[in-house]
């Protein structure tokens, strides 16, 4: 009897370990919040959800006392975690907690600085070293850092600007054109070199020590939107002691997150940045719904857009709308359509939409273009039919001229 009981215990233990290894929970994350000039009550649970969604983290949220409260009561054991995510800007921590945090990072702990966390603690020298650049810093803390603007990305250079003044500003919120500067960095590898980020504040004129720092990506601060006309750093890494810090200025939170947090570009760089900060590696795949240079991609429920979503939304497409569902389908076809059989499956799905009388002309034009390179003789009847429609004739004729017979 006793033996059986021990066996059950051992099995239960093994299952827990397997769960940890195979189904996530590899890394422990702590989201620190409780004070912020932003809507931390909305953003912190979203950050926790995004971390756990990767199946690589278990995450908890810890709140500091409210503004003016006794900060001595805030002293988490940072050493229990692989990554500490700061969604915090408020009262200074106690000296004891600050020392514990510095030790945690020096000893190899990971940190993610999220949006307004780079407004926090301007007087804390070690924190400035960790974040590289921030708001409210002056010439005594370090230079302004940005890339100038040129027609060709190769002509754009990193500018170190020692002009005296305060760090931190932003223009009106707008969709941001993001450019990768370090394509080979584990966080950026495999992402498009240019993509469009959902409507957000673009933090500009940040300054700080910028030691041991790399700029992974910049975004253009359009003067038409009250911006600086420069390419401002938006994704940054620093090394501090043995620790790794990932700093994203993206993600200004509205009541329910809003487009800045719903943007797949924000979500994916945050998730990858957290894994890199925790481990120095990134094992996450780039999802199909990642944005491209012409179209923002938002996850309204923070979940990856599925093939079913694509097939339901594509028929309603018109030129004034985002192409994200179509881009998502294209990405799937390019990644999964390696075998003729798989391509045929995608072709059949597209034929269904082409045959659908309710589907819009714009949707059909886009699908005809896609079918033109990967379609077979299976598409001939529907393409022939669509060629009778004046609005679709040109696209249909083009597709017809390129369709390959089925072997
Ligand atoms: Zn903000």
Reading the helices and strands in chain order gives: HEHEEHEHEEEEEEEHHHHHHHH
The total of beta strands comes to: 11
What would CATH call the architecture of the largest domain? 3-Layer(aba) Sandwich
User: Which percent range describes the beta-strand content?
Assistant: 15-25%
Backbone shape: elongated
CATH class of the largest domain: Alpha Beta
Measured as a percent range, the helix fraction is 25-40%
In spatial order, strands of the major sheet run 2-1-3-4-11-10-9-7-8
CATH homologous superfamily of the largest domain, by name? Class I glutamine amidotransferase (GATase) domain
Spans of at least 5 consecutive residues with low confidence:
19-24
Radius of gyration: 25 Å
Q: What small ligands are held by the chains?
A: zinc ion
What is the CA-CA span between the terminal residues? 65 Å
Structural class: alpha/beta
> How many individual helices?
12
Which whole number gives the mean pLDDT?
92
Characterize the largest beta sheet: strand count, sense, and whether it forms a barrel: 9 strands, mixed
Write the CATH fold name of the largest domain.
Rossmann fold
Count of domains: 2
């Amino acid at each position: 009897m006793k033996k059986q009981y021990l066996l059950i215990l051992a099995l239960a233990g093994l299952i827990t370990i397997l769960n940890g290894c195979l189904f996530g929970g590899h890394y422990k994350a702590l989201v620190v919040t409780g004070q912020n000039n932003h809507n931390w009550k909305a953003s912190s649970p979203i950050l926790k959800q995004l971390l756990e969604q990767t199946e690589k983290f278990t995450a908890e949220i810890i709140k500091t006392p409210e503004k003016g409260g006794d900060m001595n009561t805030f002293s988490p054991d940072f050493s229990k975690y692989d990554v500490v995510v700061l969604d915090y800007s408020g009262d200074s921590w106690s000296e004891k907690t600050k020392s514990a945090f510095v030790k945690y990072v020096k000893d190899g702990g990971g940190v993610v600085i999220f949006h307004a966390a780079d407004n926090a603690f301007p007087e804390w020298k070690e924190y400035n070293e960790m974040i590289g650049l921030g708001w409210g810093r002056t010439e005594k803390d370090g230079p302004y850092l940005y890339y100038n603007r040129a027609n060709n990305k190769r002509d754009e250079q990193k500018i170190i600007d020692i002009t005296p003044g305060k760090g931190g500003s932003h223009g009106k919120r707008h969709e941001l054109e993001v450019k990768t500067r370090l394509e080979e960095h584990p966080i950026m590898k495999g992402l498009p070199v240019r993509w469009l980020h959902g409507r957000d504040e673009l933090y500009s004129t940040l300054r700080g020590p910028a030691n041991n720092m790399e700029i992974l990506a910049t975004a253009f601060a359009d003067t038409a939107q009250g911006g600086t006309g420069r390419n401002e750093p938006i994704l940054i890494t620093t090394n501090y002691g043995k620790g790794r810090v990932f700093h994203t200025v993206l993600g200004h939170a509205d009541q329910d997150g809003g487009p800045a947090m719903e943007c797949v570009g924000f979500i994916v760089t945050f998730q990858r940045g957290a894994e890199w900060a925790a481990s120095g590696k990134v094992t996450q795949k780039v999802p199909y719904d990642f944005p491209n240079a012409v179209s923002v991609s938002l996850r309204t429920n923070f979940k990856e857009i599925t093939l079913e979503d694509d097939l339901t939304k594509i028929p309603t497409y018109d030129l004034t709308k985002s192409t994200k569902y179509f881009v998502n389908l294209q990405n799937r076809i390019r990644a999964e359509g390696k075998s003729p059989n798989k391509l045929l499956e995608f072709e059949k799905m597209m034929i269904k939409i082409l045959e659908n009388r309710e589907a819009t002309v714009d949707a059909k034009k886009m699908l005809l273009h896609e079918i033109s390179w990967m379609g077979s003789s299976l598409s001939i009847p529907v393409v022939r039919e669509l060629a009778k429609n004046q609005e679709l004739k040109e696209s249909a004729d083009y597709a017809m001229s390129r369709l390959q017979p089925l072997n």
